[in-house]
Amino acid sequence: MIQLKSKLPQVGTTIFSVMSALANEHNAINLSQGFPNYSCSERLKNLVNEYIQKDMNQYAPMPGVYELRKALADKAKKLYNIELNPNDEITITAGGTQAIFSAINTTIREGDEVIIFEPAYDCYAPAILLAGGIPKYIELEFPEYEINWTHVARVINSKTKMIIINNPNNPATKILKKQDLEMLDKLTQGTDILILSDEVYEHLVFDKKTHVSILMHKNLRERSFVCFSFGKSYHVTGWKIGYTIAPPKLTNEFRKAHQFTVFAVNTPIQYAIAQYMNESDDYNTLSKFYQEKRDYFIKGIKNSRFEILPCEGSYFQLLSYKNISDEKDLDFAKRLTIEKKIASIPLSAFYNKNTDNKVLRFCFAKTDDLLDKGIEIINEI
Ligand code: GLN
Fold first, then answer.
1. C-alpha 162 – ligand 1 centre gap (Å)
2. Which of 167, 240, 272, 328 could cross-link with 48 by S-S, CB 3.0 to 4.6 Å?
3. Measuring CA to CA, which residue among 113, 62, 125 is closest to residue 91?
4. Residue 336 in contact with residue 381, Cβ under 8 Å?
5. pLDDT tens, residue by residue, 259-318
6. Cβ(170) to ligand 1 under 6 A?
7. Those residues with Cβ within 8 angstroms of residue 331's Cβ, 6 or more apart along the chain or in another chain
8. d(CA 193, CA 136)
9. Quick check: 268 and 57 in contact, CB under 8 A?
10. How far is the CA of 213 from the centre of ligand 1 (A)?
11. The domain defined by 42-282 carries CATH number 3.40.640.10
């Protein structure tokens, strides 16, 4: 028998796969894993077909198709008023998760500390651990999920190599304010601390608030890897395609890991998205689209026994069940899936100590008929 000592002994299968599988097994409505149940644009689908037919089917350049990187530089100019050089500041990735993995693995060494805020999206800690780093967990204060910067200041020390922020935050559904970035700038000035900013939900920000990207902050931008996802912006999570923006020196290191993780990302989809972006800036309509879904969902369940927590961004709604049960959130989520036929994600999955505030996350990126079914079930619980 071979002896295999796990490098990730605490890590099991991601909660998204667990809950989606349970939903399928029990024929439950799946509001757990975040993905839309509607189509992306017909034009975008046709463009992908066209580029496949045009035989753009061989390897793309390692950093991504130039036309797509150029379209992204143009978008950053429009949205964030910054000049990016497509050649050495933008890299197309196989989704947000790969981008995050590559950024961490190309910079973090044995013993380096990386600050992450909990609830933390579940791919951060394993990537840090595989790199030999030490995750330093800071809990966002429940139920506001604000960052306590005084606490952060206390955790930072000479071993701190990176701080990961997630804005809008999945699963906390919270967005960062300008003042948060000011604090981050103040705490990192004069240090070599890197920032990894996960902004995959950049276009899903509600109630007339605006997304405050790290890219808009001159100082912070110089030390940041900023990760984005086409999956969220174009309703194509299964295409697994995203990108990372970072200054040339960081991009250079990023690509060293990227080229030996995926080498390059699939070619026809890159051409298709590039052309689509030149034809349309329909990502500007996403906030309105998703805000309507959020409002439809919460209006439907406002008389239920769940408590509705504020949702500032992302396509998730947090519901507290503290008035319904004192079961552990994982048990409760599984029971709702099996007995009531509705699947959600228990928030304890995003804490290293499995902190349980009796909160479940529901994805509202669904058509009204599916949301209606969900609403009906939630009202009966
Ligand atoms: N980002 C999605 C979510 O939060 C899940 C992605 C995945 O399943 N890895 O639900």
1. 23
2. 272
3. 62
4. yes
5. 999 999 999 999 999 999 999 999 999 999 999 999 999 999 999 999 999 999 999 999
6. yes
7. none
8. 14
9. yes
10. 21
11. yes
Q: Which two tokens stand for residue 97?
A: 């998760």
Residue nearest to atom 8 of ligand 1 (CA): 16
Rounded to 5 degrees, what are φ and ψ at 360? -120, 150
Cα 55 to middle of ligand 1, angstroms: 31
Could you check whether 15-40+284-380 and 42-282 share the same CATH topology?
no
Q: What is the pLDDT of residues 26-63, one digit of tens each?
A: 999 999 999 999 999 999 999 999 999 999 999 999 99
15-40+284-380 maps to CATH 3.90.1150.10: yes
CA distance 53 to 130: 40
Alpha helices by DSSP H, listed for 156-285, are 178-188, 218-221, 230-234, 248-258, 267-279
Minimal CA–CA distance to 304: which of 377, 366, 379?
379
Domain ranges of the chain: 15-40+284-380, 42-282
Residues 6+ apart with CB under 8 A from 173: 145, 309, 310, 311, 312, 313, 314, 316, 317, 318
The pTM for the full model equals: 0.97
**CA dist., res. 48 & res. 376, Å (int):** 38
Cα–Cα distance measured from residue 212 to residue 11, given in angstroms and rounded to the nearest whole number: 32
User: Whose Cα sits closest to atom 1 in ligand 1?
Assistant: 34
Q: What is the pLDDT of residue 357?
A: 98
Angstrom distance (rounded) from CA 253 to CA 151? 30
